[in-house]
Amino acid sequence: MPAEPEDRAEPFCPYFGTCGGCTLQDYAPASYLALKQELVESALRNAHVAASVDAPIEAHGDGRRRATLHARGPAVGYMRARSHELLDIATCPILVPTLQQRAVPLTRAIAATIGDCDVAITATATGLDVAVKTERKMKPEKLTLLAQRSDLARLSLNGEMVIEARPAALPMGKTMVELPIASFLQATAMAEGELARLVLEGVGSAKAVADLFCGLGPFTLRLAERAKVSAFDADKAAIAALTRAVHHTKGLKPVAAAVRDLFREPLVPVELKGFDAVVLDPPRAGAEAQARELARSKIGTVVSVSCEPRTFARDAAILIAGGYRLERVTPVDQFAWSMHVEVVGVFRR
């Protein structure tokens, strides 16, 4: 959806309009933020949820700290707009500086070594973490020398470790967390901090919190600086990493982390007894089953974080029907120049 002439800005990326990634670079700042807010407001209207939506918080920070590039023949880059054809690029200006400089050349070097592949690169505190996927059968040793010469923190091939010079780790609160291979992260470090701040504000003075769909624990670890936390997620590797981080961090309140598929086995009201607040951060599909159990519970506060306004609104309607009021809705714009937006909602009984 192109901006109207009076709302236009000059795109800063030479691939704008050709690359399928950033579709809103031609929007002036005010129109851009208004569109992000409208994405949330329209989702709530369509779900018949009446709520005031805050102005979006801009959380682009230094840029995205992770990217997945594709290599097909001589081309390395992203898919073209409305196409399955690959666009060859020299760099991507919405990434953090390290990835702007290194992501494309590194992917080209990997492709020159093993052929067509997909390369996910994360900028961590200890160096680049590179996860390579390919359909070709090959010996992983072919990539070892490249990883050493490139001073990578870690390189994996099709989910299996090839070489780890040092653990790929990132700070979360006052804790360093070692990342499992291909683990999920918020797109920008600034957005993770802003989302955590909103979660902590929403939870308030709660002394016992359940963090559902906790992932690596970006909320758990910050919450545990002042509250007892029980954390749940279906990702075994993420729960293991969170547990290790807790064991190596002093000054935290008790944290219990458990593997659980909350889509198939949501926490039911009897299990929710004893918690003052619940934090939800599900994937795009939302947390419908868990929202229905929360609606039946006596939990006083629910803070919902979502990367999909439509499923957020659906789940909000379930909570409201169960006796909650939606006290605050805040969009957080970490997906720069795209039609995606993060949203945080605070529900009270």
Structural features, described:
It is globular and about 60 Å long. The chain has an eight-stranded mixed sheet, sandwiched between helices. Helix 1 (29-46) packs across helix 9. The chain is an alpha/beta fold. It contains nine helices and 17 strands. It starts with 28 loop residues before the first helix and ends with a strand. The mean pLDDT is 96. It has two domains: 38-59 and 185-348, Vaccinia Virus protein VP39 (Rossmann fold, 3-Layer(aba) Sandwich), CATH 3.40.50.150; 66-170, OB fold (Dihydrolipoamide Acetyltransferase, E2P) (Beta Barrel), CATH 2.40.50.1070. Helix content is 28%, strand content 26%.
Evaluate the radius of gyration: 21 Å
Query: CATH class of the largest domain, anyone?
Result: Alpha Beta
Mean pLDDT: 96
SSE pattern: HEEEEHEEHEEEEHEHEHEHEHEHEE
Architecture of the largest domain, CATH level 2? 3-Layer(aba) Sandwich
Number of domains: 2
Number of helices: 9
User: How many β strands by DSSP?
Assistant: 17
In CATH, the homologous superfamily of the largest domain goes by the name: Vaccinia Virus protein VP39
* Low-confidence parts: none
Largest sheet: 8 strands, mixed
Shape: globular
- Beta-strand proportion: 25-35%
CATH fold name of the largest domain: Rossmann fold
Q: What is the topology, as strand order, of the major beta sheet?
A: 1-16-17-15-14-11-12-13
Q: What is the helical fraction, as a range of percent?
A: 25-40%
Q: Tell me the distance between the termini.
A: 39 Å
Q: Please identify the structural class as seen in this structure.
A: alpha/beta
